[in-house]
Specification:
Layout (H helix, E strand, L loop, with lengths): L15 E6 L6 H20 L4 H12 L10 E6 L2 E7 L8 E5 L5 H8 L4 E7 L2 E7 L4 E8 L13 H32 L3 E5 L2 H10 L2 H5 L1 E4 L11 H30 L8 E3 L1 H9 L3 E6 L9 E4 L6 E2 L2 H6 L6 E4 H12 L2 E4 L15 E5 L9
Parallel strand pairs: 5-8, 8-9, 11-15
Antiparallel strand pairs: 1-2, 1-4, 2-3, 5-6, 6-7, 10-16, 11-16, 12-13, 12-14
Helix pairs in contact: 1-2, 4-5, 8-10
């Protein structure tokens, strides 16, 4: 997951109110629970020192939350009397989260939406394709491509003229497959999708798959379920898409953990991976983090660091932060500080869990990183 969409949060000084909220069902009992949950979230912010204007802005946003529009809930980020950003969740939080802190609280967002790959589904037939962009919680139309409509149907005759006609049909199919592949590649780049699922008859799927550019082809899978025609969706198709998304998440996590194990174990020289707060803080200051790995239950996430106004002004000690040019460093959780750095330097962030590897293969303390570049430490 890349956090560039959160950049506006780091253009403001804060402190920040962060609230993860799941609205109750829209009935009489649900409305009462909704109101009580809003009151509890706002009281927590007040107890932690949030200003009245920011609490009021959060209260208004939470009261307006709709389970119909956001069935899994939404996270709200507010400061200086304004809700600056809100983002739909893919899974509802197990419990309400309401925090007032120097930096936005982002780790729960990774858990509730970060392992939710964006999937571009292409419904293909001989005349074109419809595209749909899907996450776990929502889906929406993402474009359409129309190829040549004639001729697209073969005949059974073996006459010379008919064989010529059938060759024209074949050419039409190939032309349309190329048009779909080109449009699909553009939609993939523009949408930022993580993977592509090709739906339709085997011949059309295969023809499009073969014509995709290599980066898109490597992200594409096919399913024999469903098609482009109205009413062709099915439970089997939904299961196939869900399985493709799960395989993607598992594969990406395994690849990252394999690189992490190799990088920290001396398989690369110098090390291509680091773990622990001091090493990560140093790498973040130098913009060397390529992928930040977070185990949400790790004890190091809540470790105290010291930050300045810039994302690269972070240190494990207050005095060290001052040497970086910050006259008034503030305390912040390690995960908050590192996620701010990742968001502003374009690093990827990945949640890793115990069900994906043995604990001793995961980052110690819950925080690790794959590095963009390495260097041999100079002799002193």
């Amino acid at each position: 997951m890349r956090l560039s969409f959160l950049q506006q949060l780091f253009d403001r000084d804060g402190p920040w109110a962060t609230v993860y909220f799941h609205a109750a069902h829209e009935d009489e009992a649900g409305a009462k629970r909704h109101e009580l949950s809003v009151g509890e979230a706002c009281r927590t912010l007040e107890e932690e020192g949030a200003d009245a204007a920011t609490v009021r802005a959060v209260r208004e946003a939470l009261l307006a939350a709709s389970p119909a529009e956001d069935p899994a809930g939404r996270v709200y980020f507010a400061t200086d009397g304004e809700v600056v950003l809100s983002h739909a969740l893919s899974r509802p939080p197990e419990r309400p989260i309401s925090v007032w802190a120097r930096l936005p609280r982002l780790t729960p967002l990774l858990e509730l939406s970060g392992r939710d790959p964006l999937c571009l589904v292409a419904y293909i037939d001989r005349t074109g394709a419809d595209f749909e962009l899907r996450s776990e919680a929502v889906s929406h139309h993402a474009g359409q491509v129309a190829g040549r409509r004639h001729p697209v149907h073969r005949t059974a005759s073996d006459q010379l003229s008919e064989r010529h006609f059938q060759l024209k049909v074949e050419n039409t199919w190939q032309h349309n497959a190329g048009a779909v592949a080109e449009a699909l590649a553009s939609a993939y780049e523009e949408s930022g999708a993580d993977l592509v699922v090709l739906v339709g008859d085997a011949r059309e799927r295969r023809a499009v798959h073969e014509k995709l550019p290599e980066p898109v082809r490597g992200a594409a899978v096919e399913t024999a379920h469903g098609g482009r025609a109205p009413g062709s969706s099915s439970a089997a198709l939904e299961e196939a898409i869900a399985e493709a998304r799960q395989r993607y998440v598992h594969r990406r996590a395994q690849e990252a953990l394999d690189r992490f194990r190799t990088g920290r174990s001396g398989g690369q020289s110098p090390a291509g991976a680091v773990e622990g707060v001091p090493a990560l803080v140093e790498a973040a200051r130098e913009h060397r983090i390529d992928t930040l790995l977070i185990r949400p239950d790790g004890p190091d996430l809540a470790s105290e660091t010291w930050i300045g106004g810039r994302p690269d002004q972070l240190a494990v000690r207050r005095t060290n932060a001052r040497t970086l040019g910050e006259s008034d460093p503030r305390p912040a959780r390690a995960d908050d500080a590192l996620l701010r750095s990742a968001a502003t330097t374009g690093a990827e962030v990945m949640v890793v869990a115990s069900d994906e590897a043995d604990d001793h293969h995961l980052p110690a303390g819950g925080l690790g990183a794959l590095l963009r570049w390495t260097y041999e430490p100079s002799a002193v």
